[in-house]
Design a protein that fits this description.
345 residues; eight-stranded parallel beta barrel; alpha/beta; three-stranded antiparallel beta sheet; binds flavin mononucleotide; 12 helices; TIM Barrel
Length: 345
C-alpha cells in the first residue's frame, strides 16, 4: 500500500537548500502559504540543526529535514596528489580574493555528522526526513520510520528508485537534471545531462507506486502542472525561492540569478567535486574540464575562496547554484511564489 505525503494545502514543496539558502523564515513563509518545507541539515553542526528543528516544531506546520548521506565505507577518496594538482590550478582564483589554499588541511573524510543527525531526529522526530547523495543505510531508514518520520530518498534514475524502495523508503524525491545545486545522483561519476525532469518522473512512476516529489527546473505554474501530470504527487522548488525576502542567499547570488551576463547553467564539479548545476561563470569556464571528482574534499578546498567571493561580490568566482528556471526567480515574499505556482491547480 502506497504511503502518502503529509497533508498540506498545496502539492508544493520548498526544497532544502544547504549553505544558507534555507532559513527558518523561508520555512515559515512557505508552510504558511500551504507548502511542505524542508530544513537543510547538510553542512550544519548537529546542535545548530537541533535548534532549527525545535523552532520549526514551534511554528506548528508540517515540515521535513534533509540530510546528506555519506559515501559508503570503502568508497575511494580523492588521491591527495590530484587534490594538490587542482589546488595549484585554481590558486590564482584564490589569490585574487586574498585566499591561500591549503590542500594539506582538507579532512580526508567527512560524513557530515550523519550518525549524530540521525540520533537527534530519533530523539526529536520530525514529520519527514529526506536523504540525498546516495542510499541511506537501511537500519537508519528503519530507525527514523520507527520514530514516526516518513523517510524520503532522493533519486535521479529509475534504478535508484527501485533500490530506494527496496531499502524501505516511504517516498521518493525524483530530482531531474534541470535542478539547481548538487545532483543527488548516487553515482557522482555519471554524466547528469540536460534531460527533462518530467521524463525522469514518468520513468520512475512506471517502476514504483511510492509517492513522488518531482524537483528540477520549475519556472512557473505550467511546469508544476506538467510534473504532476507526469506522475508526481508534489513538486519541489529551490531556485525560484532564492531571491525572495526570506531566503538566506547572498546578495551576490541573488543578483547573478537574473543578471543577463549569465545566460546559461551547467552541471559542474569545479566547486565541490560533485556534480551541481550552476550559472556558467568564469570559474566554471576555466576549471570545469580539469576539476577532479572528489566530494567533499574539493568542497573543503574551495570553501574559503567561495566565502570570500560571496562576501566581496565576485560573481565570477562564486558557486552560483541555479536550476534552469533561474530567470523566473522573483524578489518579494516567498509566500507569493508558492501561491503563484499553485495558480491553475
Ligand atoms: C542553493 C541550493 C542549495 C541546495 N541544497 C540542497 C540540499 O542541501 N539538499 C538537497 O537535497 N538538495 C539541495 N538542493 C537541490 C534542491 O533540493 C532541489 O532539488 C532543486 O532546487 C530543484 O530544482 P530547482 O532549483 O530548479 O527548483 C539545492 C539547490 C539549490 C539551488
Amino acid at each position: 500500500m502506497a504511503t502518502r505525503l503529509p497533508d498540506t494545502d498545496l502539492p508544493l514543496v520548498a526544497a532544502p537548500m544547504a549553505g544558507g539558502g534555507t532559513t527558518l523564515d523561508l520555512l515559515a513563509a512557505t508552510t504558511d502559504a500551504g507548502a511542505l518545507a524542508f530544513l537543510a541539515g547538510g553542512y550544519q553542526a548537529p546542535d545548530a540543526l537541533a535548534a532549527q528543528v525545535r523552532a520549526a516544531h514551534a511554528h506548528g506546520r508540517p515540515f521535513g529535514v534533509n540530510l546528506f548521506v555519506p559515501a559508503p565505507p570503502g568508497t575511494p577518496t580523492l588521491d591527495p596528489t590530484a587534490l594538490a594538482a587542482y589546488a595549484r590550478r585554481i590558486a590564482p582564483e584564490a589569490a585574487a580574493l586574498g585566499v591561500t589554499l591549503d590542500p594539506g588541511a582538507v579532512p580526508a573524510a567527512d560524513d557530515d555528522a550523519w550518525a549524530a543527525k540521525v540520533d537527534l531526529l530519533r530523539r526529536d522526530p520530525v514529520p519527514v526526513v529526506s536523504c540525498t547523495f546516495g542510499p541511506p543505510p537501511a537500519a537508519d531508514v528503519a530507525a527514523l520510520r520507527a520514530a514516526g518520520s516518513l523517510v524520503l530518498v532522493t533519486v535521479t534514475t529509475p534504478q535508484e528508485a527501485v533500490a530506494a524502495q527496496e531499502l524501505g523508503a516511504d517516498g521518493l524525491v525524483v530530482q531531474g537534471p534541470a535542478a539547481g545545486g548538487h545532483s543527488g545522483t548516487w553515482d557522482p561519476a555519471r554524466t547528469v545531462g540536460d534531460g527533462a525532469t518530467a521524463d525522469v518522473v514518468a520513468a520512475v512512476a512506471a517502476r514504483t507506486r511510492l509517492p513522488l516529489v518531482a524537483a528540477g527546473g520549475v519556472d512557473g505554474p505550467r511546469a508544476v502542472a506538467h510534473l504532476l501530470a507526469a506522475g508526481a504527487q508534489a513538486v519541489a522548488v529551490g531556485t525560484l525561492l532564492l531571491r525572495t525576502d526570506e531566503s538566506g542567499a547572498s546578495a551576490t547570488h541573488r543578483a547573478a540569478l537574473v543578471d543577463p551576463r549569465f545566460d546559461a547553467t551547467t552541471v559542474t564539479r569545479a566547486f565541490t567535486g560533485r556534480p551541481a548545476r550552476a550559472l556558467r561563470n568564469g570559474f566554471v569556464r576555466r576549471h570545469d574540464e580539469d576539476a577532479p571528482l572528489g566530494y567533499p574534499q574539493v568542497h573543503h578546498l574551495t570553501r574559503e575562496l567561495r566565502r570570500r567571493a560571496a562576501a566581496t561580490g565576485d560573481a565570477d568566482r562564486l558557486h552560483l547554484w541555479a536550476g534552469t528556471g533561474h530567470r523566473a526567480a522573483p524578489a518579494g515574499p516567498a509566500g507569493d511564489v508558492v501561491r503563484a505556482l499553485a495558480a491553475g491547480l
